[in-house]
Amino acid sequence: MRVLILHFLDTRNAKNITILRNLQAASENNGHQVTLMNAKDVGNLQFPMYEYVCIVTKSAKLFGAKLPSQMGEILNKHGTLSGKKGCSLVVKGGFSSDKMNTLVMKAMEKEGIFIDYSQVIESPEHAKSIGKKIG
Question: Residue 116 has what pLDDT?
Answer without folding.
Answer: 95
